[in-house]
Amino acid sequence: MCGIVGVVGKSPVNQLLYDGLLVLQHRGQDAAGIVTSEGKMFHMHKAPGLVRDVFRTRNMRSLPGNMGIGHCRYPTAGSAMNPDEAQPFYVNSPFGIVLGHNGNLTNADQLKQEMFRLDRRHINTNSDSEVLLNVLAHELELTATGVQLDPDTVFKAVANVHRRCRGAYAVVAMIAGLGMVAFRDPHGIRPLVIGRNETDQGPEWMAASESVALDAMGFQFVRDVAPGEAIVITEEGEFFSRQCAEQPRLTPCIFEHVYLARPDSLIDGVSVYEARLRMGVHLAEKIRRQYSHLDIDVVIPVPDTSRPIALELALKLGIAYREGFVKNRYIGRTFIMPGQSVRKRSVRQKLNAIPMEFKNKNVLIVDDSIVRGTTSREIVQMAREAGALKVYFASAAPPVRFPNVYGIDMPTRRELIATGRTEEEIAREIEADAVIYQDLEALKAAVREVNPALQEFETSCFDGKYVTGDVTVEYLEDVEHRRNDKRDQAADEAEDENATV
Length: 501
Fold this sequence. Notes:
The chain has 501 residues and is of the alpha+beta class. 35% of the residues lie in helices and 24% in strands. The chain has a 7-stranded antiparallel β-sheet with strand order 3-2-4-1-10-9-11. β5 (89-91) and β6 (97-105) form a beta hairpin. α5 (128-143) packs across α6, α9 (272-290) packs across α10 (307-317) and α11 (340-350) runs parallel beside α12 (374-385). The radius of gyration is 23 Å and the shape is globular.
């Protein structure tokens, strides 16, 4: 999960890119980067850390130009990132290209081998985004007929990228001397939207992961980038688009609506906020149908994502809704923190219970999902320490039983609390009196009710069905082995550091 933004403007865009990344900070807190274009020269600054910490006044002054792209990142491998893997990435051949990528390529290893043996290109990091950049650069080199590029050449190159690359990718890129390119994988797994701003000098264009970035910058939402589509916007502001995939099929990641996206975003014609309200309705219906024997006094959300879900659930059940947890907004989202020990320790720093809302009550705590169970267990314990008589725990998402390989940090089965456990066993693991999960079909219905045109979704973490069709058991085992190796290496490094201290 990352945030990407690109702007073709009529005046310097460094502040627009910075502000856009701030709005998308929830999508990645590990690193940030901006590249601007001034004539045929790129200016870049990127580093590990939050957007506000990476960019100082001196950095912003060194980013002139009326066109640029930005990226905020977190590592999908689940461990502390290599600073060299901060994006955007740059390659100087054939034309000078920078690229920011949200998603994950499932055939990155195969492509790396092809890059070395056939394409004669060197990959300098372990990032699949650098692989994607070099595939695009190589295809542009093969497609171009001269020193000048045009949109038609770019579209042909992107079509070849679609033929070679597998997995999830929403991309913003800049090509020196041409303009900005935005494209989305043929399944549209990760979101990408386009906005426009009218000025006296002509239209300005913005591409971003979520529509909130457009809203905050004063751009008017135009539409989502279609799955398989590529958009080229020249430095002068001319807009070109083409479908570049042979068989595009919209199957967006449903977890965007459950957890990842901001509630004020509009993704693939779906208001994230409205979808979460509908999740609350469906969850209330299940509780009324199957758990009417539970004596619930109060419904309390885990802030912030689950608030609209819990509010609508309480309304439908006729039960009091209360804010029982206070969130420290200066602590990172625990779900995307690298390493289980860091994640567990940060829960108490992030949340604090209000005792009067728990004391002598049977409490239904509502969260967007239960992934590893570490956070859920700590929250249940906090509720009991605050005086709750019974603690029931409801998840707006179904049980997460399978790895996600399309850019979300939950790659191993052994880390997922729902893998191989019943709901009763999960309740015992997190020390709750009962655990209630949303049904998968109900979750799909909640999103589909907001936009009936959406017929399919990427739901692999719930049902193990991977829409790209190339994810095998062997692939998943390899991902797990790599993650375990990285975790062991990180533990060894921490032990060595402690010993030194």
